[in-house]
């Protein structure tokens, strides 16, 4: 049978069944040549090579195997000292062979393999990995080099790539997946096959930069021949349960994924004409066995209770001590970096600075106000992780908007190894994770959920009057975290109609003293007026002299070239600040003095003048230069300095210029494209606007808010795509017909349609959105909606979608390797994914709140996990990703150099968040392309494109101009709800209003970036008590493991673990990098994962509770 005669699926995973029977054996039965690159040198990699290769022998085929060879540190040291690598490798493999093949069964397996080597059916080469600088490094493995190629007699080729390793665990255990490409199945598959073949040949010929590839030393070959069967004849071994049998498939699933293997337990190899007699490996007669007395060769369990790969040492050290040390490492005096080293992120300098600031002032009270896209969640995650694993916080509450709860939960697990439940209002819900051993949902009464020590809750829910008491009466927290803190604001801020705090701000004021540490987060602390920053800082605590009016007046006076009396008033407030927070640090004084070229005497004069309580004389004596320095010092030494941490992309670029970042910060090239609608599109667009304004004008005053909201959702959707409008109108007809019945809520649509107006006194929750939609139903016109749907059905090819194709072809022709297309709506994504796939010959994927998909060569869309989407993007196996805003937050897309805003959200901060997915440290392109698509002659395009011209919108965010951006949703709404006769005038008025706002903002006294000065000095930390790779030492030493634990290394830093009483195996890793790529199929065996806690219980460390006071390291402890 040939390869193309079987129905190979594009993807295989453990969920399909036994991968040996489904794919491995059928593929080998069709092949003449099997080329394989696998992770690293162990006995499974070699003995599994003998499995199924009898079929190659029958086909007169052969196998070429490249096996990674991980060096030990002493081997690297010897190479650097001048020893020949071939000699060292020969010695190392000799030792490995002696250690690995100890049992009778293992020697038989190795005998079959050595027979294939001796008869030229198997050729093995060794790959010694190198780092990016071309140097050998201890512990480096070919973890990513997992690919195979099969060639049949007709010349057809099949390639597979993915996470599968050539090990028994790789093929048999439920952790792996891989993709399959066939040379006869289209151009894209052929390209992937060719790429796999070229990569293999480059390695085989020792031309790859990433590894040195060597022939197996002759002495090793001779050692292998010692294991030859005595009769020099290849015979199949017995069927081994649990080791991949030749049994008939795995039921109906096998039929559809490559068919049944069709193999029996033994397949005879064609015998020579004059066979040489000799002993065979035979199955004993089952009837002759005596189970009570018979001694059998041990079956090769993946987890030998005493695996030969472990290196037990004399039990001088109690495992309790080791595991208690790891548990308590973050508590130690040098434990600050434990949380950092045991998470999957590599923090940027400003994130480490914010983290250290929180550590140094614990218990702290801080507002993190970094620009959009600079990783506030990372800073919060670091302090949450440290507080939790160090025991500094026993109770932590995280309050976030309901739309962000799932995202927060995912980030805390995937990046910080914390399984945190969400409180839904009725139950606690934990995230799905590998080797889960508890229910993921637990019903809980209202008066009990706050007893959960670490929990995420909705700020939308908790602000409700009927729910606030749950927090007000709860036990105190050690750490309270509040995201999107700008939702806590006074109503009518900065106007003459101020009405006091909104519900969320009132709640925070009520519970602020119930938290020892309080962390608030927002990228936009000032929406319209500086008093909003005061509102947030007052929750954290301010000196009594700094009330709201004083706060705003302080910065107004600073901006007006104050006279001597006013300067003395400012100095009085400076003194009040120092009285609470301590004298301003000398480093800050020096930076300002140096910036103005002050001498030491001049510096002292400035400080003396500002600290003088009574006399005006020191202030009067300041010269012009000293006076300017004094004003600069006052601007940066307000309470904002002590209660707010803010970083901008400008600061990151300074870090890069000063050599504090390994990678430069990319520049942005923003292109605005106004697309002319086709006549049919323009007519439909105007009909929608007509329906919007007429319906709004017809609404009764009490319902206008609801009707206006719903009408703006139609307008936002038609600006995205006509398909998105069609889907929402169809659903609206269903709602109208179902009036009087309980509505079926579409949570995705409710989140997408939520108001983007951040200036609302109360930000709407999804439930609020649903209520507004119900209130507006009575004013909807069914016949008009049907007419609009008919008009949509008559449209031709979408003009904006066609322009998207043109832009994609252009940027890929320029050499960009990947592009991401963002839209607000899943409906638009559904339309675009097929439209783009049919017109662009590139691998395409999509990702939304419902999960990921990739376009298969057959044209079908196959499901992809988030883990797979990240991998496919990283390996360029997806070059175009179409993504919704809801899903994009979880992806870091440094490999994509192009971002297309297919629609323009009314809140420009959402566009900035999109751009932040690719404009990141590590971006591979020096310039990222931002392409904004919008329909010509619409208010969004008028305003956004004008702001790009005037203030560089989307090339960077200027804090002083934030109030402009906050007001845009109001301007858009006012223009759209205007009657048809004033609509054109309303468009021009909106643009005029925005220009006036720009003028006002530029003249304003309060600049958030000026008052939140940040220095460039990177923080310093002591070396941590352990790093994740130290756990590999522990796991390799049987004497340091609890006796009830079974552990076996599968590949570098990855292990199979069997816990007491468990039949199933868990896959664990000690590497945060591996977990980051494979979080769905691994647990990270570091504090605070479930399996880490289970291992602590197995080690029985509960009686070791002393407070660590020394700075010893784990390596020092065990060595």
A few lines on this structure:
By secondary structure, the protein is of the alpha/beta class. Among the domains are: 3-230, Endonuclease, Chain A; 321-328 and 1019-1117, no CATH class; 561-643; 660-676 and 797-935, 3-Layer(aba) Sandwich (Rossmann fold), CATH 3.40.50.300; 679-793, no CATH class; 937-1008. Helix content is 42%, strand content 13%.
- What's the assembly state of these chains? single chain
Q: What is the CATH topology descriptor of the domain at 3-230?
A: Endonuclease, Chain A
- Within CATH, the superfamily of the domain at 3-230 carries the name Endonuclease Chain A
Distance between the termini: 57 Å
Strand content: 5-15%
Number of helices: 45
Shape: globular
- Overall pLDDT metric: 82
The number of strands is 30
The helix content, as a percent range, equals 40-55%
- Unreliable stretches (pLDDT < 50, length at least 5) are 234-315
Major sheet characteristics: 9 strands, mixed
């Amino acid at each position: 049978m040939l390869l193309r005669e079987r129905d190979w699926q594009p993807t295989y995973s453990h969920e399909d069944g036994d991968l040996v029977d489904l794919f491995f054996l059928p593929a080998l039965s069709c092949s003449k040549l099997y080329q394989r690159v696998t992770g690293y040198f162990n006995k499974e990699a070699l003995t599994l090579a003998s499995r199924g290769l009898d079929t190659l022998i029958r086909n007169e085929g052969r196998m070429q195997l490249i096996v990674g060879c991980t060096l030990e540190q002493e081997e690297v040291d010897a190479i650097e000292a001048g020893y020949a690598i071939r000699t060292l490798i020969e010695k190392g493999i000799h030792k490995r062979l002696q250690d690995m093949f100890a049992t009778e069964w293992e020697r038989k397996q190795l005998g079959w393999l050595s027979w294939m080597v001796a008869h030229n059916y198997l050729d093995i080469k060794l790959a010694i990995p190198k780092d990016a600088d071309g140097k050998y490094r201890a512990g480096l493995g070919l973890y990513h080099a997992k690919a195979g190629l099969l060639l049949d007699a007709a010349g057809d080729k099949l390639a597979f790539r993915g996470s599968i390793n050539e090990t028994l665990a790789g093929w048999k255990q439920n952790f792996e997946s891989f993709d399959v490409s066939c040379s006869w199945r289209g151009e894209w598959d052929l390209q992937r096959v060719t790429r796999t073949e070229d990569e293999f040949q480059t390695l085989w010929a020792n031309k790859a930069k990433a590894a040195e590839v060597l022939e197996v030393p002759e002495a090793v070959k001779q050692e292998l021949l010692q294991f030859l069967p005595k009769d020099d004849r290849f015979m199949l071994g017995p069927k081994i349960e649990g080791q991949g049998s030749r049994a008939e498939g795995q039921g109906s699933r096998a039929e559809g994924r490559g068919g049944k293997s069709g193999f029996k337990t033994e397949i005879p190899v064609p015998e020579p004409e004059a066979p040489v007699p000799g002993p065979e490996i035979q199955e004993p007669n089952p009837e002759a066995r005596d189970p009570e007395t018979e001694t059998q060769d041990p079956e090769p369990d993946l987890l030998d209770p005493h695996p030969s790969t472990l290196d037990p040492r004399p039990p001088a050290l109690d495992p309790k001590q080791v595991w208690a040390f790891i548990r308590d490492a973050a508590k130690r005096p040098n434990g600050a970096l434990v949380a950092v080293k045991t998470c999957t992120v590599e923090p940027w300098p400003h994130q480490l600075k914010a983290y250290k600031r929180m550590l140094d002032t614990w218990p702290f009270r801080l507002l993190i106000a970094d620009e959009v896209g600079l990783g506030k969640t990372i800073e919060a995650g670091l302090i949450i992780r440290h507080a939790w694993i160090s025991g500094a916080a026993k109770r932590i509450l995280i309050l976030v908007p309901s739309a962000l709860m799932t995202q927060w939960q995912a980030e805390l697990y995937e990046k910080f190894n914390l399984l945190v439940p969400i409180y839904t209002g009725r139950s606690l819900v934990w995230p799905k994770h590998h080797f889960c051993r508890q229910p993921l949902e637990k019903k809980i009464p209202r008066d009990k959920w706050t007893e959960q020590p670490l929990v995420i809750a909705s700020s939308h829910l908790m602000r409700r009057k009927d729910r606030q008491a749950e927090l007000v009466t709860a036990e105190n927290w050690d750490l309270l975290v509040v995201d999107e803190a700008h939702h806590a604001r006074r109503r009518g801020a900065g106007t003459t109609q101020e009405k006091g705090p909104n519900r969320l701000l009132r709640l925070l004021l009520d519970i602020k003293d119930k938290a020892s540490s309080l962390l608030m987060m927002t990228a936009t602390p000032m929406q319209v007026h500086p008093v909003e920053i005061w509102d947030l800082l007052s929750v954290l605590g301010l000196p009594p002299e700094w009330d709201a009016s004083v706060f705003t007046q302080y910065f107004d006076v600073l901006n007006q070239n104050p006279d001597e009396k006013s300067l003395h008033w400012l100095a009085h407030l400076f003194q009040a600040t120092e009285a609470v927070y301590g004298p301003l640090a000398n480093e800050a004084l020096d930076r300002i003095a140096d910036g103005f070229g002050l001498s030491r005497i001049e510096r002292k004069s400035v400080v003396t003048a500002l600290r003088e309580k009574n006399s005006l004389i020191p202030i009067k004596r300041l010269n012009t230069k000293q006076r300017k320095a004094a004003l600069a010092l006052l601007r940066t030494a307000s309470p904002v300095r002590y209660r707010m941490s803010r970083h901008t992309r400008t600061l990151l670029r300074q870090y890069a210029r000063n050599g504090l970042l390994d990678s430069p910060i990319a520049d942005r090239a923003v292109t605005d494209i106004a697309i002319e609608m086709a006549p049919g599109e323009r007519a439909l667009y105007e009909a929608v606007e007509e329906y919007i304004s007429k319906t709004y004008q017809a609404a009764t005053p009490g319902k206008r808010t609801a009707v206006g909201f719903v009408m703006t959702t139609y307008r936002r959707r038609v600006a995205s795509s006509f398909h998105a409008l069609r889907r929402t109108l169809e659903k609206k007809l269903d709602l109208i017909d179902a009036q009087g019945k309980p509505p079926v809520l579409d949570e995705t649509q409710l989140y997408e349609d939520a108001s983007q107006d951040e200036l609302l006194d109360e930000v709407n929750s999804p439930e609020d959105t649903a209520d507004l939609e119900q209130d507006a139903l009575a004013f909807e016109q069914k016949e008009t909606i049907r007419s609009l749907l008919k008009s949509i059905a008559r449209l031709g090819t979408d003009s904006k979608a066609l322009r998207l194709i043109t832009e994609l072809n252009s940027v890929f022709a320029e050499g960009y390797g990947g592009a991401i297309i963002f839209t607000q709506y899943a409906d638009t994504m559904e339309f675009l994914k097929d439209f783009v796939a049919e017109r662009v010959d590139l691998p395409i994927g999509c990702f939304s709140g419902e999960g990921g998909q990739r376009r298969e060569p057959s044209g079908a869309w196959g499901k992809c996990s988030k883990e797979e989407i990240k991998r496919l993007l990283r390996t360029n196996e997806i070059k175009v990703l179409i993504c919704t805003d809801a899903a994009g937050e979880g992806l870091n897309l440094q490999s994509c150099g192009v971002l297309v805003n297919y629609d323009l959200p009314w809140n420009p901060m959402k566009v900035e968040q999109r751009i932040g997915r690719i404009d990141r440290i590590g971006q591979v392109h020096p310039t990222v392309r931002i392409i904004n698509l919008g329909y010509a002659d619409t208010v969004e395009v008028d305003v956004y494109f004008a702001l790009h011209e005037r203030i560089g919108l989307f090339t960077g965010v200027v804090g002083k101009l934030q109030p402009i951006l906050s007001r845009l949703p109001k301007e858009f709404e006012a223009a759209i709800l205007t009657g048809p006769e004033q609509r054109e005038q309303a468009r021009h008025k909106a643009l005029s209003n925005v220009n006036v706002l720009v003028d006002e903002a530029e003249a304003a006294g309060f600049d958030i970036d000026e008052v939140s000065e940040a220095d460039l000095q990177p923080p310093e930390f002591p070396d941590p008590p352990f790093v994740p790779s130290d756990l590999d030492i522990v796991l390799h030493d049987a004497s340091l493991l609890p006796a009830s634990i079974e552990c076996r290394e599968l590949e570098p830093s990855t292990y199979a673990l069997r816990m007491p009483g468990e039949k199933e195996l868990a896959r664990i890793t000690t590497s945060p990098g591996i977990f980051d790529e494979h979080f769905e199929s691994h647990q990270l065996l570091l504090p605070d994962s479930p399996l880490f806690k289970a291992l602590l219980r197995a080690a029985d460390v509960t009686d070791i509770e002393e407070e660590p006071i020394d700075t010893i390291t784990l390596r020092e402890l065990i060595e």
